[in-house]
Structures are given as C-alpha cells and as structure tokens.
Amino acid sequence: MTKTIGLTGGIGSGKTTIASYFQSKGIPIYIADDEARKIMQSSVVIQAIKENFGETVFDKGILIRQALAEIVFNDASKLEQLNAIIHPAVKEHFKEWLTEKKDFPYVIYEAAILFESGSYKNFDIIISIVAPLELRIERVMKRDKTSREHILKRIDAQWTDQQRISKSDFVIENSDLEKAKLKTDEILKILKIKQKDS
Hints:
The chain is of the alpha/beta class. It is about 55% helix and about 15% strand. The strands form two sheets. The protein has a five-stranded parallel β-sheet, sandwiched between helices. Strand 3 (about 60) and strand 4 form a beta hairpin.
C-alpha cells in the first residue's frame, strides 16, 4: 500500500526545491499548486469562478490570476470561497494520479496550505519545511518581483512555522540547502526502515 506524505511550508520556505530533491531520489511528487493552476483552466472551474467572483477577474474570457489573488488575499471569506471551488477538484485529480503510482512505497503531495485547508489529515506522514522569515521574504521578492508588504500579507494568511511544526512528523530547516538535503536524506533512511518494518 502506497504511503502518502504531505510536504508543506510557508511561502518562500523552499518547498519546491526540497520536493525536487525528493523527486531526484525516485519519489513521485504531486505539486498541488501546479495542478490547481491547470484545473483552474477547466470550463467547470472557470464557470464557478465567474459565478463567485464576477467578470472583473477575467480579460477576454481569460482568468487574470493576479486580480483573483488580490481579492482572496485581502478577504478571508473570499479565499474560503475560492478554496471550496479548487480543493475538491485537486483532491479528485490527486486520487486518480495516486492510482498510477501504486507500485511506489511513498509519494509526496506538496502544498502550501496543507494545514489551513485541513487536508493534512488525509496523509500518513507530514513533513514541514521552515526557514527564517527574512530569508523567506527575500526569496519571494526575488522570485515574484513583488513588494514586502504583499508578501507579509500572504504570510499572515498562512499558519506560522510553530503551528506547522507542532503537527508535523518531520521538519526540514531550509536556510542552507546542503544541510536541508542532508536532513532529507536522513528522513529517507527513516522511511526505508519503516517500510521494512511494516
């Protein structure tokens, strides 16, 4: 039976980098944000977004993700509304993806809001990636070419590292990539031992 690992961390923690490292070790990775982006192009989801958010987040029928992000990150109830549209669709897609990976002992589901959405309860193991706040801000400013204020708003909408750590089986501190990789290797060894024992 394939075990599912939820991999999460706040914005700028370096989740995707660590996910790629796990992938390089032969573990299939499902990047929830990437899949959600694709799902948001489906006609059913587009229709639901139009009904809930109106035409202002569209330009000639094309969804303007930035405009939608501005709305949901400034209004918790709107974020809930959007999540109620996207999450069930992603969950369904992940289930299908999982059936194709049934020969693997472990798969990883990488998502930014694993705890906030409550979906962490669906996983066998939870790994959280943490990093110092200033480093996270610096990474996101460089990556997204956005303002510090905008990033802090997004950080405030997410759980704190302390909250994540309290509900995680493993924690990877990712301020130094080489050290983070060593910690990842350590976790992989533990998982291999668990696999033999089960």
